[in-house]
Amino acid sequence: MAKLSSVEKNNRRRKMSQKFETRRVKLKTVIYNRELAPEERFEATLKLAALPRNGAKIRIRNRCEVSGRSRGVYRKFKMSRIALRELGSQGLIPGLTKASW
Question: Which residues contact 93 (CB under 8 A, 6 or more apart)?
Answer without folding.
Answer: 77, 84, 87
